Amino acid sequence: MTTVTFFRRPDGFLTGFKATGHADYAEYGSDIVCAAISALTQGIAQGILKVAKAKAQVKTDEESGLFDLKLESGQDEETLRSAQLLLKTLELSLTALSQDANYSRNIRIITRERR
Q1: Closest CA to 67 of 7, 9, 21, 1
Q2: Whole-structure pTM over 0.85, yes or no?
Q3: Which of 65, 71, 84, 101 has the most CB within a 10 Å radius?
């Protein structure tokens, strides 16, 4: 199962996400759930870094299925607003995937507070 944790400040502002584990929907290389999660997380990360031009720390490890993105503090309001739109889009997309009866055993969504 892939677990995606979204990190939120007490005011509701998303500060990043961390995806870990493999979906185990199908064999490696044929897993459509894993492919969907990877495409969404990597696409949103590219949007945050290259379109919104937000600064973020990114860590990845293909073997363990880790993809960790944390927004850096001290950025202008417009950049952070753009990053929020992308993070909320990711949260909505992955939550919808986790609620699909066909894939609910393969992805879990968690929200945690991060200051």
Answers
A1: 21
A2: yes
A3: 71
